[in-house]
Design a protein that fits this description.
Strand content: 25-35%
Structural class: alpha+beta
Number of domains: 1
Distance between the termini: 39 Å
Number of helices: 2
Largest sheet: 5 strands, antiparallel
Number of strands: 5
Order of helices and strands: HEHEEEE
Helix content: 25-40%
Shape: elongated
Length: about 120
């Protein structure tokens, strides 16, 4: 009987500790937009800005690590008063990696703009 009670108590403690671990983890969606004269620069820089945002989020939340996964976000034009939304006819491509989902479109002031989205999870 005493042995059964010890096993039950240990099982409850193990489940409680295991249940708290996922609750401590958190996720947040981030996006980063960059404009450039070339498609390649806009794409590369928006992805780099997303990685920088993930690192800043890790520091601000006090997480020991982060993982990024591609997440589709709305394209974010800089000149919202001129172009409040990005029409489908100005989007020239979507580029997906394991870490980012990037939508690129033609800009109003600069030729190319890319918005990268990612779901960042950490603990």
């Amino acid at each position: 009987m005493l042995r059964s009670a010890k096993i039950i108590v240990l099982a409850i403690l193990a489940l409680a500790a295991w249940g708290q671990h996922p609750a401590a983890a958190g996720c947040q969606v981030i996006s980063a937009t960059h404009s450039a004269d070339t498609k390649a620069e806009a794409l590369t820089m928006s992805r780099q800005l997303a990685a920088q945002s993930a690192a800043e989020l890790r520091r601000s939340k006090g997480w020991s690590y982060v993982s990024m996964s591609a997440y589709r976000v709305k394209p974010d034009p800089f000149w919202k008063s001129v172009r409040p939304v990005v029409p489908k006819d100005v989007i020239y491509g979507s580029f997906v990696t394991a870490k980012t989902y990037t939508t690129c479109f033609t800009g109003v002031v600069v030729p190319y703009v890319c918005t990268s989205g990612s779901k960042v999870c950490g603990n």
